[in-house]
Amino acid sequence: TFLVPLGAVVGALAVPLTTRAGNDLAEKIGNPPFIQRHQNFGDQVLPWAAALAVTTLAQWLYLRRASATTVPSVVLALLVVASAIGTGTIVVLTGDSGAQAVWGTK
Q1: Which residues have C-beta within 8 Å of that of residue 93, sequence separation ≥ 6?
Q2: Which are the contacts of 14, defined by CB distance < 8 A and separation ≥ 6?
Q3: Residue 66 class from Cβ within 10 Å (0-12 exposed, 13-18 middle, 19+ buried)?
Q4: Which of 15, 29, 47, 86 is the most exposed place for a label (fewest CB within 10 A)?
Q5: What's the mean per-residue pLDDT of the chain?
Q6: Angle at 58 between CA 67 and CA 7, to 5 degrees
Q7: CA end-to-end span of the chain, whole Å?
Q8: In the chain, how long is the greatest CA-to-CA distance?
Q9: How far apart are CA 35 and CA 97, in angstroms?
Q10: 70-74: long-range contacts (C-beta < 8 A, 24 or more apart)?
C-alpha cells in the first residue's frame, strides 16, 4: 500500500520543523549544556528519516512493476528494515535524551 512510503515521507518532512522548534527553544533558554546530547541525537534524525523515506518509496515503486524479481525485492526489503531500525533507534535516543534533559539526572 502507498500509506507506508507516504507516512515515511511525511515523517521525514516533519523533522526539520521539530529540529527548528528545538533550536528556537534552545536559543530562547540560552542553550544550556544539559540539552547538548539531545541536540546531537536530534541532528542525526533527518538522515535516517530520509533513508527510510527513500527506501520505502523505492520498494513501493519497484514492487508495483510486473517484472519485479526476488533478489532486488529482498535487497530493498533489507534496506527498508535497516533504515527503519536506524530511524527508530535514533528517535528513541533523541526522545530519551530530551526527557533526561528536562526531568532526569543525566
Answers
A1: 41
A2: none
A3: exposed
A4: 29
A5: 91
A6: 130
A7: 42
A8: 56
A9: 8
A10: none
